[in-house]
Amino acid sequence: MSTSVLIVIIILLGAVSFFFRKKKNYPPGPLPWPIVGNLPLLRSLSRKFGGQDHALLELSCKYGSDLVALRVGSNDLIAVSGQEAIQQVLHNEEYDGRPWNEFINLRNFGHKNGITFNDGPNWREMRAWLVKNLRVLGLGRRQMLDLMTQELNDILEKIKDGGVRNLSKITAPAVINVLWTLTTGKKIDDTQRMLYFIDLMERRSQAFDMTGGILSALPWIKYIAPEKSGYNLLTQVNTEFKRFFMETIEEHKKNYTGKEQDDLINVFFKEMYSEANSDGLFNENELLIIMMDLFIAGITTTRTTLNFLFLNMIVNQDVQERLHQELDKVVGFGRSPDLNDRKRLPYTEAVLTESQRMCLVTPLIGPRRVLRETKLSGYTIPQESTMILNLTSIHMNPEYYSEPDIFKPERFLQNGVYVPDKNLILFGEGKRRCPGEILARCAIFLLFSGVMQRYRLLPDPGEEPPTLVCLPGLTISPKPYDALLIPRQAAPSSVDLPN
């Protein structure tokens, strides 16, 4: 063996010993490689088991621990599984931080702003302000419901003749327009502009995983492989997002007189131009990032949840039949469903819950930055560690749900009554619970029940039947599919529903 080779081996062994030595009382996990850490292993397992959440679940089983320690590039990452450990992270302040890496730095244009990738006093103040003013502007109130009803009517008009349709493309504008109206004061009426916005969100959500991709692990790689690392893609998409939102912000700025209080941008301007804003917390970059937070998080997840719901109806025709029976009996055909029907539609509610349990758009939530050294599940968690929470470990746990891979809405019914499940985590919990939860829940219920009331969904006869195979990314999504919509006729109102 040559001297140079021996030196290289000694250096590598020293690097392993120095950087990856076992920390005292640290969670178990695979031995990381120098430089790349466990990134190759994580990617390999994700391909093998069908997603990063399933890869982490496999590692949790292998090491017999709800906490698994990984090294992703130069970052310490702890994957958390199991109800007890996940709940502790969601509800304890020491886990309220957000990490700051190259992926997040690019996404936020180099600024720690907004409500998604931010923490500390400014985050708490801005989040409280946002939640308060969205409610003032109509979130969860009659204004929002009226907007959603209008959008549902537009959808039903577009598909009135049935036929083969891509429901995802048809329903996406409805959710966008409700939030866009609350934020900017008007809908996106330009069809091409709407399609461009939808495409922009799709390109981003499918390009990256929850760890931030290779950019957060190996930030220097952007100089060596800007294309393969995703750096060029992320930079391009973010530039397009910024241009899209800034056009609307600049339009508002030109017309702002100080009296307008009819949308979120104008309400923000009032704060920004106020003498009380001496610390500059309210600024244009903050507004830009808030808009990105609202639309990237809210629209993508709501749209994809609906996409999974319609797909589950195609795949599970027996469930669809029973859903139709309930809608016929309770709502009939003289009007569309509204939120007042929700308590009288227990099976519909159970279908919504079961689809989200099996096909949760965000099976991994986080990442969380540990603000101070703490204990979790008996292990010592160092300050500045990054935590990701694997909700698949709960939602697909056979201890909670028998035959978790089978679509069974009745698991959420008792004597014909819908019973909420405390194990499920659909919109997060704690101080980082999704601020748009009310909008998402209303949109999912109204748009899904409104379409299903009037149509039977079948596979596209010209294609192979769709399956529940998911596409990985920041969020999971089904493979693109079309559905054959068959207009339904009024059914007898005396149909008896099984429990």
From TrEMBL:
Chain coiled-coil ranges: none
Keyword terms of this UniProt record: Heme, Iron, Metal-binding, Monooxygenase, Oxidoreductase
Domain of life: Eukaryota
InterPro entries in alphabetical order: Cyt_P450 (IPR001128), Cyt_P450_CS (IPR017972), Cyt_P450_E_grp-I (IPR002401), Cyt_P450_sf (IPR036396), Cytochrome_P450_fam2 (IPR050182)
Keyword hit for Heme: yes
Pfam families: p450
Names of required cofactors: heme
PANTHER family named among the record's database cross-references: CYTOCHROME P450 15A1, CYTOCHROME P450 508A4-RELATED
Family as reported in the entry's similarity comment: Belongs to the cytochrome P450 family.
Protein name: Probable cytochrome P450 305a1
Organism: Neodiprion lecontei (Redheaded pine sawfly)
Classification lineage: Eukaryota, Metazoa, Ecdysozoa, Arthropoda, Hexapoda
